[in-house]
Every structure is written in C-alpha cells, then in structure tokens.
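Lecture 7 notes: from sequence to structure.
We start with the chain below.
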Amino acid sequence: MLDTLITSKTRVKLLLKFFLNSNSRSYLRNLETEFGESTNSIRLELNKFEKAGLLQTELDGNKKYFRANTNHPLFNDIHNILLKQIGFDKIIERVLEKLGHLDKAYVTGDFAKGINNEIIDLIFVGDDIDVEYLIRLIDKTEKLIKRKIRYVVFGRDEFMTFAKSQKESDLLILWKNETNK
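Predicted structure tokens for the same chain:
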C-alpha cells in the first residue's frame, strides 16, 4: 500500500528506518550498506527529509547522524501510518488486548531497527498469559497481515534480566497496559 502512495523505494525505507522506531539513528554510509543502494539516492532523500524538518541531525566526529524529529507535527501521523502498513494495528487489536495479564509488548529484530521484513519478532511480558490462546490469535493475525510472527513470552522478572542485555534501540514498545503503571 505504501509503495503505491510513495514511489521512491529509498524514501519508504527511510520512513521505516526512522519513523517506526524514533530511537533509531544512522549515518549515510551505514544506510548505504543496510539498504544496498547508492549513497547518492539516499543522500537526496535524507536532504529532502531534513529540509522538511522531518529529520534531525547531529555530528559525531566526521559522521552526520540522522534521526526522526519527534517534535514535528506529522511525526505521530507518519508513525501510525507505518504501524498500519506493517499490520501492527491488527496485532494490537486482535492479539494484545485479549491475552489477559499482559504488561507490555515489544517489537524486536529488524522492525525495531526500522528494517522491513516478512517476519515480525514480538516479545510479550506478563504473568499468566494464555499461550494456547496466543498461538490461535497469532495464526489468525498472520493470515490477516500476510506476515509471519515470531514471539517469546517472558514473565516480568525474566524480562527485566533479558532487557539489561539489550540496547534501547533493539526494543520498540508496541503496547503497554496503562493500568499497571
């Protein structure tokens, strides 16, 4: 769907990279390697986004890092469009809100880094999660969004231990139970 609205494949990749996970940041040569595209096409799109105020930059040594401008008035709209494009809205609607004692759900792997993939990696955190029900919902949701979903379920304490070994940018919060603040 997004490819129909935005014809530049590079632009779509950059939107996913920076607007799916606002913690994601990168520099030109790194994007060249990640996308497998020429630096010139990536640079042109980065300049357009920067000029429009959608991306912020910071210098670190001789590298110019880019990241999403979360204060831009369109940031939330772009982020929500990307969630719908990938099918995260359906995951939230069909899976997360019906599992019982779920505290949080995270996206990890490629999507947390802003890289499009046919496989979505999810982490569910909570106690007494109905795993059999989760399996049935995941199966239905995979058919609906036409992507595979890999998942792991952690108890609260297990997740705290796991999270210490992860970088902040490797975990993208997808859902949080607001009643358990």
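Points to note: The chain has a mean pLDDT of 85. The chain is about 45% helix and 25% strand.
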